[in-house]
C-alpha cells in the first residue's frame, strides 16, 4: 500500500518544484523555462494556472518568497525558492509516480468503448481521420525533438517526448489494424454478427 506523508501534487505543481530545485525563480521565468524546454508537451499549463499553482505551493509551505523586485515599468515580481519540505514533497511525489502505475482514463478509451454504437462505415471514416491526425502529430513531435536536440538538451531531458512519441506510434498502429479488421469484416460489428461469431 502507498504511504506518502505529503499530499499528492498536480503535474504542474511537480514541474514548478522541479524547476525551483535548479534555482529560485519568479512565475513568469518558470513559464518561460517551461516553454523553452517544451515541458508543456508533458504538463498542461493553462492561463492563470501557473500563478494559482505558486499560491497553492506557498500555502503548503513547499516554496517561499525570497525576493521581490521590479524592472522598469514591469509589474512587481516575487522570486520563490523551494523549501526543505518542498524538496521532500517533490521527491516523494516523483518516486510514487515512477513506482506505481496509475489507472488513467484517456478520453479516446471512452470513445473506443462506445465505437460499436456507430455504423461500420462511419467508424472507419472517423478512425481514418484520427489516423491522419496521429501521423501529423508524430511528424510535429519529431520536429520538436530535433529542435530541442539542436539546442543542446541532453536525451535525459527529452525522455518525456520519447515516451509520448512511442505511445502515439503504438496508438497509430493499433488504429490502423482496427480499421483493417472493421473493413474486412473479421471483427464482428453488428449484434447479429456477434451472435454468429464463435466465442
Q: How does this model look, in words?
A:
- This protein is mainly alpha-helical.
- It contains 8 helices and 2 strands.
- Strands 1-2 form a two-stranded antiparallel ribbon.
* Gap from first CA to last CA: 38 Å
SS content category? mainly alpha
* Proportion of residues in β-strands: 5-15%
Topology pattern, helix = H, strand = E: HHHEEHHHHH
Q: What general outline do the C-alpha atoms trace? A: elongated
Number of helices: 8
Q: Summarize the biggest pleated sheet.
A: 2 strands, antiparallel
Radius of gyration, CA atoms, in whole angstroms: 23 Å
- Which strand order does the major sheet show? 1-2
Total beta-strand segments? 2
Give the helix proportion (percent range). Answer: 55-70%
Keywords:
single chain, 2 strands, mainly alpha, disordered N terminus, 8 helices, two-stranded antiparallel sheet, 199 residues
Helix/strand layout:
Blueprint: H1 11-20, H2 27-36, H3 49-59, E1 63-69, E2 77-82, H4 84-99, H5 107-114, H6 120-150, H7 159-184, H8 191-196
Antiparallel strand pairs: 1-2
Amino acid at each position: 500500500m502507498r504511504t506518502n506523508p505529503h499530499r499528492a501534487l498536480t503535474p504542474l505543481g511537480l514541474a514548478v518544484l522541479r524547476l525551483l530545485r535548479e534555482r529560485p525563480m519568479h512565475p513568469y521565468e518558470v513559464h518561460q523555462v517551461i516553454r523553452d524546454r517544451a515541458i508543456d508537451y508533458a504538463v498542461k499549463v493553462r492561463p492563470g494556472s501557473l500563478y494559482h499553482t505558486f499560491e497553492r505551493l506557498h500555502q503548503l509551505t513547499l516554496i517561499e518568497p525570497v525576493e521581490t523586485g521590479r524592472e522598469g515599468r514591469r509589474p512587481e515580481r516575487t522570486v520563490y525558492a523551494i523549501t526543505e519540505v518542498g524538496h521532500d514533497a517533490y521527491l516523494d511525489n516523483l518516486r510514487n509516480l515512477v513506482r506505481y502505475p496509475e489507472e488513467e482514463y484517456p478520453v479516446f478509451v471512452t470513445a473506443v468503448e462506445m465505437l460499436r454504437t456507430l455504423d461500420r462505415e462511419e467508424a472507419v471514416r472517423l478512425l481514418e481521420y484520427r489516423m491522419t491526425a496521429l501521423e501529423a502529430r508524430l511528424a510535429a513531435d519529431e520536429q520538436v525533438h530535433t529542435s530541442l536536440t539542436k539546442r543542446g538538451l541532453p536525451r535525459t531531458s527529452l525522455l518525456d517526448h520519447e515516451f509520448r512519441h512511442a505511445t502515439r506510434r503504438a496508438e497509430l498502429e493499433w488504429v490502423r489494424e482496427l480499421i483493417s479488421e472493421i473493413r474486412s469484416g473479421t471483427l464482428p460489428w453488428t449484434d447479429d454478427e456477434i451472435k454468429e461469431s464463435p466465442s
